[in-house]
Amino acid sequence: MALIKSISGIRGTIGGRPGEGLSPLDVVKFTAAYGTWLLRQNAENKKVVIGRDGRISGEMVKNLVVSTLNGLGIDVVDLDLSTTPTVEIAVKMEQAAGGIILTASHNPREWNALKLLNGEGEFISGADGAEVLELAANEDFVFADVSKLGTYRKDDSYLQKHVDLVVNYPLVDVKAIKACNFKVVVDAVNSTGAIYVPALLKALGVAEVEVLFGEVNGKFSHNPEPLPENLTALSNEVNKSEADFGIAVDPDVDRLCFVCEDGSMFGEEYTLVAVADYVLKHRKGNTVSNMSSTQALKDITLKNGGEYHPSAVGEVNVVTKMKAVNAVIGGEGNGGIIVPDLHYGRDALIGIGLFLSHLAQSKKKMKALRNSYPDYFISKNKIELDKGIDVKNIFEKIKGKYKKQPQNTEDGLKIEFDKDWVHLRTSNTEPIIRIYAESHNETTADNIARKIMQDIKEFI
Questions:
Q1: Domain count of the chain?
Q2: Which of 10, 35, 199, 432 has an alpha carbon within 20 to 30 A of 441's alpha carbon?
């Protein structure tokens, strides 16, 4: 059993003793803490939007969340089966005080989580998250009396509202997409992508859509993280059906990646690169990605006359940096696209609209489009830590060993070696150090990562 309490939300495995997994008591406690925090921010706004992905535990967790919020006197707008970006959009449209998304993102089916949003439909800040955790720890909440209980309203209109926002976005070229008569295979991993992605593709004029794992039952047919090793069925079906490309999303539809017509991976790192290239060709400006993402975004940004800015890892950090530098596009190398004038959140649906517009206007096949971008290889590794290990001391020793190289300590430690780099950071959710290294050469990236991992083991 696992329960991870972070500033951005509460994540855990379903079941077990309270405090050891995401038990019903934990769901109630942390929902009550969040609701109390919202009411302290603004006692007049008592509206919260909620939505869930297709997880097995989703209905149970939702019922607990709704009842707890109603018990605090908070009115709930329930989107039910939805996506993370749809809930973010709905918070703004509803002028709600906040929102809760019931999803554990790419984690396996035994996991679920409460992702917490502010009134802007964005993930709450570190400081706000700390307040929520303190309220939960102290159980510092007071429920409403019987005459002041909150109300409940189910709203299924936001699928169409979200699709309409994408279709009507100025840079989404529906006419060009429709003219291509695309044949597409979608891996919906038994979650809400099976509802939302086909609806969007139909609205964009895609000629033929085949959905793999389209039953929304939360019994994920494969590991739900959209990585190459988990997308073999999609790759094989694209080949077999002679589709133009494949689309994969994670269970809450905020990550996006593509498979080329030959079954090869476009590369999740290159989803943002391609979308940014398209946006920057139509709209001059700056870009942001987290510092564990590919340098190809920086190359594309400079080529299009903009400035690239790295941020700390985490969506809230990317958004903060995007606002600071007035970025026109940004996101994360895990296939997360953030289009600021739509909303400040990773959104696979707007990513699909922009990517397909780019592909259609380029008049290239998917593989040829991928080959038009610089090749970088990221070696992604991790080292598990024993309790009590002084990570700060390890990082200080590595900093000293490579003191002649440019370094960035905004988020862990990033060291640059000419055009190569390595980024070390502790995980927010696991007792590990992640080691990402990038180079134009795959072997070089692996060797850089291996060398740093040896250094870590030496300094433990």
A1: 3
A2: 432
- 198 plus 302 within the same structural domain: yes
144 lies in the same domain as 206:
no
| Catalytic residue list contains 311 | no
Q: Looking at 23, 105, 289, 293, which residue is catalytic? A: 105
Q: Are 177 and 357 in contact (CB under 8 A)?
A: yes
The token pair at 427 is 């995980």
pLDDT given for residue 388 in this prediction: 77
Supply φ then ψ for residue 453, to 5 degrees: -65, -35
Sign of torsion, CA 355 359 361 362? positive
* CA neighbours closer than 13 Å in the CB half-sphere of residue 217: 7
- Structural domain that includes position 82: 3-156
| 249 and 322 both lie in a single domain | yes
What's the chain's average pLDDT? 95
Q: Which has the closest alpha carbon to 11: 131, 107, 132?
A: 107
307-363 pLDDT, tens digit each: 999 999 999 999 999 999 999 999 999 999 999 999 999 999 999 999 999 999 999
Same domain, yes or no, for 147 and 233?
no
Q: Is the pTM here over 0.90, yes or no?
A: yes
Statement to judge: residues 282 and 404 lie in one domain: no
- Whether the CB-CB separation of 343 and 88 falls below 8 Å is answered with yes
